[in-house]
Amino acid sequence: MQNYSFSGKFIDKLKSARKIVFFTGAGISAESGIPTFRGTNGIWNKMKPEELASFSAFIKNPKLVWDWYQYRRDIVHKTQPNPGHFAIAELENYFNQVTVVTQNVDNLHRRAGSKTVYELHGNIEKNYCIDCRKRYDFINFQDSPSSPKCECGGLIRPDIVWFGEMLPDDQYSASEKTAADCDILFSIGTSAVVFPAAYIPLIAKNNRKYVVEINLEHTDLSYKADEFISGKSGDVLPQLLQLVKELKNQNVQN
Ligand code: BJW
Ligand code: ZN
């Protein structure tokens, strides 16, 4: 594994920082074995988003869309949070406020122990009836010839934000607020192309907050970020945690 060196300016920011935001995307879960969306091995390279991730696709063929999410739910159930998720959760012990704003639906941040997690695109473990809105969260649906129906007869859909749908208002407005008010925002493992989620790091930047990007490749955000760290989040984040521990130790000794 590569040893990352962090810039002096970034280390100074870390020393004085009290409020940290981690804005995450599919890349942080890639090392857990969950495929990303874009890029050579991405989901959208094999499937067409408009045929699976839209309300009209669901109404046209509920069983097809339901089965696809069931397949992805099975993958999520077989995976575990990776060192990147765990490092973020542990960093809560070293700052006054650590908030995770995630575009991921895989629930891995919570499973790793992060306490404040805003989910901008929903959660694959949650479902609701499109007619009466009754919730069907954390239920293992059995396979059947049709997609599951609510007791009212309505179709049950995954609680995922599909293209053309609004993001959950409470999660998005809380994320905007925390991004505008943090000391450092880390944008990790996201191509930062899907809006309005991709506004979150830009809000931090527009409010003159320090923005650090961790990714395998450059994105549209890279030229606006204060630091770009090229690497796997599962390698970089544990080293960041180690650095923070050392800085806090030095503080105690001085
Ligand atoms: C690593 C790594 C490792 C790998 N370590 N790094 C034009 C302009 C602006 C907006 C639009 C527009 N045209 C259309 C829109 C709107 C649309 C949108 O943004 N489209 C863009 C794609 C152009 N947005 C919407 O529709 C949103 N709603 C909306 O706008 O509502 C308002 C409205 C409503 C009604 C009428 C009019 C307006 C909703 C967006 C919902 C997105 N949902 C999805 C799928 C959910 C379904 C599912 O999960 O099945 O959410 S799309 C998909 O992309 C998923 C993700 O959360 C999201 C972001 O992807 P992410 O996380 O960035 O993943 P990747 O794969 O793109 O990137 C992975 C990155 O990781 C890469 O950079 C790798 O290098 C890196 N990486 N391994 C570190 N180990
Ligand atoms: Zn119902």
Task: Please sum up the structure shown.
39% of the residues lie in helices and 17% in strands. It is an alpha/beta fold and 254 residues long.
Describe the protein's architecture and organization:
The chain is an alpha/beta fold. It folds into 2 domains: 1-34 and 81-121 and 167-254, TPP-binding domain (Rossmann fold, 3-Layer(aba) Sandwich), CATH 3.40.50; 35-78 and 124-160, 2-Layer Sandwich (SIR2/SIRT2 'Small Domain'), CATH 3.30.1600.10. It has helices at 8-16, 27-30, 43-46, 49-52, 55-60, 62-78, 83-91, 108-112, 169-180, 199-206, 233-253; strands spanning 19-24, 97-102, 117-119, 122-129, 156-160, 184-188, 210-215, 227-230. It has a 6-stranded parallel sheet with strand order 3-2-1-6-7-8, with helices on both faces. A two-stranded antiparallel ribbon has the order 4-5. Helix 8 links the parallel strand 2 (97-102) and strand 3 (117-119). The mean pLDDT is 95. The chain binds ligand BJW and zinc ion (ZN). Residues 129, 131-132, 134, 150, 152, 154 line the site of zinc ion (ZN).
> Could you say which structural class the secondary elements and strand pairing correspond to?
alpha/beta
**Rg value:** 19 Å
CATH architecture label of the largest domain:
3-Layer(aba) Sandwich
| Total helical segments | 11
| CATH classification, class level of the largest domain | Alpha Beta
Topology:
Elements: H1 8-16, E1 19-24, H2 27-30, H3 43-46, H4 49-52, H5 55-60, H6 62-78, H7 83-91, E2 97-102, H8 108-112, E3 117-119, E4 122-129, E5 156-160, H9 169-180, E6 184-188, H10 199-206, E7 210-215, E8 227-230, H11 233-253
Parallel strand pairs: 1-2, 1-6, 2-3, 6-7, 7-8
Antiparallel strand pairs: 4-5
Helix pairs in contact: 7-11, 9-10
The protein binds ligand BJW and zinc ion (ZN).
